[in-house]
Structures are given as C-alpha cells and as structure tokens.
C-alpha cells in the first residue's frame, strides 16, 4: 500500500472508530487520545501487513464480528495441517 | 544418610526422584522440608498469592510425582477455589465448576502436591509483574530488575526454589518472558496439546498452557505426566506428543538490527557452536505474522471480555491494558479478523515448509535486549520507556499465532550477570525431540542441567 493510500485509509478509519464503538461498546466514552492512539496502531498493522486490506479496501465493517463458525474454520485448518505433518 | 537441612534439598525433580529412590529421604520428608520453606518465604514478593493447606493424598504413594511440590499461576480452576486471575481477593467472579482444571487434575493424579496460587498480571494481560490490584513480585536475581509477565509468580516461585516447577499460560509470551527474566527454562506448548479446560481465558484461540522449571528434564517430566494422566473423558480429541527423535539441525534467525549488540554477540557465538547451523537475518514474514497475531488477539479479547465494559459491569475491575485490547477489538475491521483466522493453517504450512523442512529447530531471540529494570517497563513510572516494554514481547506473539511450541532457554549472562536467553521452535507436537536436544545443549554448554545454578541472586 502506498503512503498516500495508507494515510487516506487511516483517516477514513479514524472517522469510523466512533461509529464502531457506539455499535459494539455503547457505554465506553471515547477520547480524542484514544482515537489517535488506535489510529497509530491501525497504521502500524497496515504497514506490517499490507495484504490486510488488499481485498477489502471498501470494508471497514466491524460488525458482526467473526462468528464461532469462522473460529472453528481457522482452528480446523491449523489442526488439519499440524496433524498431517510428518517428520522429514 | 537421611537429609534434614532445607538447603540440602536437590534443585530438580529428577535429582529429588533419585534421592527418593536411594532412600536418602522419604516423600513425606521431602514435602515436609518444602513446606517448612514455604512457612518462611511464601509471600507476595516471592510470587505467592495464597499458600494452600496440606491435603490428604488421594493417589498412591508410588505415583511418579509423589513428594514433588508444585505451585501454579492463579488462573486455574480448582476443586476448592476459583482462580483469582491477578485481582484483589473477592474481585474475581466465583467459578461455577468447582472442579480441577484438566492439567491440574492430571498433576494430582500423577502424585504432585499443589502448594499454592501464584501472582500474575491481572487477567493474564501484561508482559510484566506490574499489578495495580496486588502489587508486584520481585526478581530473585536482582530486586531492581523486571519480572516478566503474565506468569510472573510462577517464575519467581520456581527461581526462589519454593516449588520445583509451575504451570503458567502463554497467549503472547506469558511463560517465555517471565522465564527469561528469572533465568529459567520455559515451555510454551503446541496449540491444543494441553487442555485449557478450567483455565480462565484471555484469548481462547491463542491461550496455551505451559511449564516453567529449573531444568529441561523437569519440563519433560511435568509435560509427560500431564499427558499420561489427563482425564480422557474430558479431552477425547487431545493431540498426542510425538516420540522423541534425535535432531540438531538449526535454522537461526538473528535480526542483528533489532537486538542489542551484546545479545546478538552471545546468540551468534551460541549458534556457531552448533554443528551445521544455518544463520539468516531474513525472516521477512515475521512482521505480517506478528500483525496477524495482534489482530487475532484483539478480536479474541473483545469477544471474551467485552462484558467488562458494559454498563452493568461497573463493579468488576477492568485494568487499563485490558480495556485497550477490548476497544481495539471493537474497532478492528471484520475483514482483518476473518483474514487472520482463515489464513492461520496456511501460514503454519508456509513457515514449516520454509524454515523447518530440512531443519529440526528454529532459533530466534527471546527478548532481544538486556533485561530492563522494573521501573523502565512500569507504565506511569517516570523512567518508563515504551520501547523497552515492547522489547519484552517483540518476538513472542507470532509464535502463538502459528501455534508452534517454543522452548525458552538461557544461553549465557550479560555484563551484570543476568540471563540472556533464546527461543527454540519446532514442528507442532514434537516437544519431546526439542527437549531431548535442549538437554544435550545445556549439558554441553554449562555442565549442569539446573539452569538457576548459572546465576547468582543479589536480591
């Protein structure tokens, strides 16, 4: 992701934070510092792993979160591979 | 000759078992000596939140760990006590099980005595012993030095020789960081190898139960006994440990630009002493794997603990560090969580094919820097340095994401005589091969299996 895209994405995301928090944790009061801090975390994660948004550039949706089905799919793919490993 | 002096108790389970076998002392005498020591030294600074009353043994006196005293992180459900999870007495939720968690029950069945509940970071969320509800415990090697977290009491109690070994949990380094700070060996097990039933969760798909001890033999003993005695009906699909095989081919990641020069020098010397070691500075996937680990941590903590931030939970404490993770989980895009979850198996496959295909083990830094002082990594302290705090868990989280076993072991000392450690990874469920190699490595390097004898306590 280019620096321009990253900055733009971070800007959009910081605007989205308050909506996401209202939806998920309505009783939590957000401070400007919270948003700044989390935006920094968001940028750092994107820089470390640019593929995170490659296929999802239009999706900053936070709700609903990963369902139990997805959790078990993730777990199963790990178990399937790890148990199939044979020593070289 | 019978032994009665406290100072004469052996340092490891293996040595104790040899004494018991030779009749140098009996199991009950061994426990009496260990309990006498607790009376004098088991307090919060030394890692103990609570010392348990002696209970009548429920198992045969021939059980393999009879006479061995253990104490565990205060995160395990017990048949007589709900876990305190690092909060002040009465603050944690009373449990509903009133049944030993699977690993604790397995150790009971193996004959081990359970001496008490140990200090931890609140909710297992913290990489140091900093605890706003209980206060901190102290590093036996140097009182000013940090004790890593979150299984901080486990490290201190084992290093103080108040118990032979301790169970902890590791979600993003919580066994390895404390072990590294106190000069111990620590084993984070493969994902799913040890049951987390009855363990208070932080992030269930990253949480793993593991062991801290003073020797690699003792890690192996405790691990094998848990697997041999785990209640089958509760953990039917438990993966099995693969049989130990000889292995010594090491792939070492040595990111010199992310380490202090003293640690890098020691690690280079250590790996060069290993025949046929392959050293690389290039492990380009690490940053994205670490990012995935963070996303999954946020998502899981949010799913597990969001109730702590709801309006009707005002009476339940929520430490700042945990609040931060819950909130990040609430605002992280769903697409990220989905990607982190669904690519986990594929990520493991790529890692194994690239780094463990024709190599037995993957060595990497533990902390990467000399141990900081407690003040330097205490949030809110005038000397607080965020970079030093980050350095404690910088190389930890991606290992949990990949679900790999990781052995933390000391390789030397820094200029202050404090431990310098590394992590060594292997393929899932091959812990016994890793431990076999580590026993040879420690023996050849130090001439003793009891690693705490390498360091001098100044505390």
What topology does this entry show?
The complex is a heterodimer of chains A (88) and B (459).
Chain A: H1 3-24, H2 32-48, H3 68-84
Helix pairs in contact in A: 1-2
Chain B: H1 13-22, H2 27-41, E1 48-51, E2 69-73, H3 102-109, E3 113-118, H4 152-159, E4 165-170, H5 176-182, E5 185-188, E6 208-213, H6 216-229, E7 250-253, H7 261-272, E8 278-280, H8 286-305, H9 320-331, H10 334-342, H11 344-355, E9 361-365, H12 386-393, H13 397-402, E10 406-413, E11 419-425, H14 431-446
Parallel strand pairs in B: 2-3, 7-8, 7-9
Antiparallel strand pairs in B: 1-3, 4-6, 5-6, 5-10, 9-11, 10-11
How would you characterize the overall build of this protein?
The complex is a heterodimer of chains A (88) and B (459). Chain A is mainly α and 88 residues long. Chain A has a domain at 1-57. Helix content of chain A is 64%, strand content 0%. In chain A, α1 packs across α2 (32-48). Chain B has helices at 13-22, 27-41, 102-109, 152-159, 176-182, 216-229, 261-272, 286-305, 320-331, 334-342, 344-355, 386-393, 397-402, 431-446; strands at residues 48-51, 69-73, 113-118, 165-170, 185-188, 208-213, 250-253, 278-280, 361-365, 406-413, 419-425. In chain B, strands 4-6-5-10-11-9-7-8 form an eight-stranded mixed β-sheet, sandwiched between helices. Chain B has a three-stranded mixed β-sheet with strand order 1-3-2. Chain B has one domain (6-246, 365-454): Alpha-Beta Complex (Amidase signature (AS) enzymes). Classes of the chains: A mainly alpha (88), B alpha/beta (459). The interface between A and B is large, with 46 and 51 residues.
């Amino acid at each position: 992701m280019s620096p321009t895209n990253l900055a733009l994405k971070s800007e959009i995301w910081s605007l989205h934070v308050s909506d996401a928090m209202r939806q998920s944790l309505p009783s939590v009061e957000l401070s400007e510092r919270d948003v700044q801090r989390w935006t920094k975390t968001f940028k750092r994660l994107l820089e470390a792993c640019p593929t995170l948004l490659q296929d999802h550039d239009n999706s900053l949706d936070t709700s609903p979160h990963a369902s139990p089905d997805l959790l078990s799919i993730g777990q199963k793919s790990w178990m399937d591979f790890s148990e199939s490993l044979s020593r070289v | 000759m019978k032994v009665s002096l406290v100072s004469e108790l052996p340092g490891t389970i293996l040595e104790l078992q040899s004494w018991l076998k030779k009749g140098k002392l009996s199991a009950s005498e061994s426990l009496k000596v260990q309990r006498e020591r607790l009376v004098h030294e088991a307090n919060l600074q030394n890692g103990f939140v609570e010392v348990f009353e002696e209970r009548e043994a429920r198992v045969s006196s021939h059980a393999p760990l009879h006479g061995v005293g253990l104490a565990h992180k205060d995160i395990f459900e017990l048949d007589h006590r709900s876990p305190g999870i690092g909060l002040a007495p009465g603050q944690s939720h009373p449990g509903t099980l009133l049944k030993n968690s699977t690993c604790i029950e397995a150790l009971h069945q193996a004959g081990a005595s359970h001496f008490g509940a140990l200090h931890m970071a609140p909710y297992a969320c913290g990489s140091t012993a900093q605890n706003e509800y209980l206060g901190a415990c102290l590093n036996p090697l140097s009182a000013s030095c940090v004790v890593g977290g979150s299984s901080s009491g486990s490290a201190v109690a084992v290093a103080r020789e108040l118990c032979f070994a301790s169970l902890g949990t590791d979600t993003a380094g919580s066994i390895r960081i404390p072990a590294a700070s106190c000069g111990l060996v620590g084993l984070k097990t493969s994902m799913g190898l040890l049951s987390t039933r009855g363990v208070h969760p932080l992030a269930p798909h990253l949480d793993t139960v593991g062991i801290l001890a003073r020797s690699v033999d003792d890690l192996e003993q405790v691990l094998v006994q848990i697997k041999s005695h785990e209640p089958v009906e509760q953990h039917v699909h438990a993966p099995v440990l693969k049989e130990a095989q000889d292995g010594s081919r090491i792939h070492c990641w040595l990111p010199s630009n992310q380490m202090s020069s003293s640690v890098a020098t020691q690690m280079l010397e250590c790996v060069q002493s290993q025949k046929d070691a392959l050293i690389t500075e290039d492990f380009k996937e690490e940053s994205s794997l670490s990012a995935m680990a963070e996303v999954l941590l946020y998502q899981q903590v949010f799913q597990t603990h969001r109730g702590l931030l709801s309006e009707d939970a005002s009476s339940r404490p929520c430490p700042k560090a945990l609040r931060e993770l819950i909130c990040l989980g609430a605002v992280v895009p769903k697409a990220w969580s989905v990607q982190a979850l669904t690519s986990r198996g594929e990520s493991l496959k790529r890692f194994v094919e690239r780094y463990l295909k024709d190599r037995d083990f993957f060595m990497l830094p533990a902390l990467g820097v000399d141990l900081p002082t407690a003040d330097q990594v205490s949030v809110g302290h005038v000397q607080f340095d965020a970079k030093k705090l980050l350095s404690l868990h910088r190389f930890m989280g991606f290992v949990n994401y990949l679900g790999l076993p990781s052995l933390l072991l000391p390789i030397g000392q820094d200029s202050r005589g404090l431990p310098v450690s590394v992590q060594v990874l292997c393929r899932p469920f091959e812990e016994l091969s890793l431990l076999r190699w580590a026993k040879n490595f420690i023996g050849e390097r130090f001439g003793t299996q009891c690693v705490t004898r390498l360091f001098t306590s100044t505390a």
